[in-house]
Amino acid sequence: MEVFHTLEVKHAEKFYGQFQAVKDIDLAIEKGEIYALLGHNGAGKSTLIKMILGLVKPSVGIIEIEGFNYDAKNKEIKKRVGYLPERMNFYDNLSAWETLTFYAKLKGISKERCDEVLEQVGLSEARHRRVGAFSKGMQQRLGLAQAIIHKPNLLVLDEPTTGLDPIGISELKEMIRNWNKEGTTILFSSHNLNDAEELAQQIGIMNRGEIIAQGTLAGLQDRLGLPTKIEIDLSIIPVDLERILIEKGVETFHFEGKTIYIDCPKDKKTQIIAAVMDGVLKVKDLRLEEPGLDSIYQNIMKEAASLVNY
Question: Boundaries of each ABC transporter domain copy (predicted)?
Answer without folding.
Answer: 7-233
